[in-house]
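Homework help board

Subject: predicted structure for assignment chain

Our instructor gave us this sequence and asked us to write out the predicted structure in C-alpha cell form, then describe one feature. I got the C-alpha cells but I'm not sure how to describe them. Can anyone check?
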Amino acid sequence: MDALPQLVMSFATLDEAESALDWIGVDFTETHGAFVGGLGPDDRERIEEVLADSDSPAPVRELAAALACMLDAAGADDSPTWRVAFEA
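My C-alpha cell output:
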C-alpha cells in the first residue's frame, strides 16, 4: 500500500483550501477530502513571494511556511509530496 503524502495543513472547507493553494500557485489535484501535489525547485520562488507579501492572509502564509519547510528538508533532487486536507 502506498503511503499518503505528508499532511501539511487542514482547512475547514474545500473552498478555503483551494483558495490558499491557488494564492500560492502550486500545482495540485483533488482526492477524497484533500488536495495533493508535489514540490519542485520552481515552487520555492512562488512560496517565498507569498511569505514576503504582507497582503497574504494568515492561513495562506502558514501553508506557505509549511511547504517551505518541506522544501528545506528535502534533498536537492527530491520532489516532496504534500497533502492539504479539508472537511467534506
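Reply (TA_rk): Your C-alpha cells look well-formed. For the description, you could write something like this. The chain has one domain: 6-86. That's the kind of observation they're looking for.
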